[in-house]
Amino acid sequence: MRTCLCDLIRPVTPRTEVLILQHPEEVNQAKGSATLLALSLARCTVRVGERFDPLTLDADLHADGRCPVLLYPASPHEPAPPAPPDLPPDRLRLVVLDATWRKSRKLLHCNPGLQALPRLALTSVPPSRYAALRKAQVPAIQRSTLEATCGALVQLEPGLVASCGCLLAAFDVFVQRGQAHNATPTITEET
């Protein structure tokens, strides 16, 4: 079955820019949420890869003089990165890793430029809307790329609660469609 996302796109215009670094195995995942997220966010760039050229990655991270902040929980197994800067959202670039939990750790490990970034961890983590489509290894903290990014944007810009809420409601429909098609719809972009 083919599923068009056009009716689910909900325009969200954050002041924070979003850079999604997508693992190649996520590109054609029918249950992946990054496509819907990227189509809905006004300031969003997607780069696909596992090992990014350090100079290109640095340019993407710091384009337009923005300060990159990695959306990723702190880990007891590695040194704590610097705290996120206290900057207005229009100076920030939220860096999001779109991958499975295991592959996100590999993205982090393969790209030293990401390891040095200040990290933003979600402070309020509601139950995942995505659970019906995938089995998370750590369901208490793992969220879809869309859920995590919406949570982070609301943390950075509380004024986005309503627009991110509309996008999350559209994501609920996306999940329902995935369940109806046994989580195997093919995503097409017809914008």
Automatic annotation (TrEMBL):
Residues 1-183 form the DTW domain. One of its GO terms (molecular function) is tRNA-uridine aminocarboxypropyltransferase activity. It comes from the Bacteria. The keyword tRNA processing applies. The keyword RNA-binding does not apply. Keywords: Plasmid, S-adenosyl-L-methionine, Transferase, tRNA processing. One of its GO terms (biological process) is tRNA processing. InterPro entries: DTW, DTWD2/TAPT. Pfam families: DTW. Its EC number is 2.5.1.25. Belongs to the TDD superfamily. DTWD2 family. This is tRNA-uridine aminocarboxypropyltransferase. It comes from Vitreoscilla filiformis.
